[in-house]
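Field reference: sequence -> structure
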Amino acid sequence: MAKAVVYTLATAALIAFIIFSPMGQKGHNHLGSNRRLGIKLSLPNFDPLVTELERRGEGRRAERENPPASTGVGSPDSVDEYLTDEGKLNITLRLLFLFPLLDNAPKDGAVSFDELEAWNVGQARDRLSYQAQKELAFFDKDGDGGISFKEYLPQFSDEEIDRNGLAHGEAGWWKEQFLNADVDRNGTLGFNEFIDFLHPEDSNNTEIQKWLLRQKLKRMDSNGDGKLDLDEFTDYVYDIYKNHIEFEFRGGHVPTPEQKFTDLDLNGNKLLEVEEMIPMLQYLNPGELSHAKYFTAYLIREADDNKDGQLSLEEMLNHEYMFYTSLFEEDEEDDELHDEL
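Structure field:
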């Protein structure tokens, strides 16, 4: 008998409120930089239908105007066929529907790591776009399709902007990041530039990547020279890198601190400059896209019963609740939010 989980729209609203808490929990507290700097990430959704339910629930709470919700790649036009009369989501039926969509390169009756990763990254990109659409709709006061600095951060006075304070959270600190994202230098952020501004940890913009690393290096650079020597790299960076590599490759070979430092030190001056640290950013400051890749590794590791490196339909059904972990796992902060609600 197909398993089902209770997932009423009221619950969807609560989960959506938790997931989008950096925007919704404390009003428009868009100066809070935890989400934008990749410090805390919500649990990923594997199924676009779950995302659709969350957005429907969120729409009941949101005071701002939402863009049209999308069911995402591979989701049916109607969600009702996967819900019982009691509002339960049939996980088994959903996986039976999704499996042929995941198994596509090639269609060989199994979902490879690359296929699953492409799917999860696609869902993550959809989340980034959706969040940016919401913010754009709210802050684009003149309706020109772009966001100016004053539109997004109206609390800063002209005097504060001119003062250009660069301490964390000051006007100059935000202005530097805004200018990094404004690639075409027209004074406003278009949609893709705005995504980079909101989610710098997921950006391919080199200037944004260097900006993020400079923020990180301030807490690692013991002697204040703006670079990392081998001791600083070993003390502050290597263990983070090592833990990610061991998880991703199931305890495979990990370079020693000296080996990794030498690989990164392209100019051979025995110091790592900001540009040389860019390959480490995905470990020091993982964003939604990196998180989707690690989630893929976790799913393959836990559900691949015969250890052939890919997932059959049977394996996915045997471990179906793992693919819907975002419905069941809550942390202490979420419990506090439940109390407040």
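Note: The CA atoms of residues 264 and 308 lie 33 Å apart.
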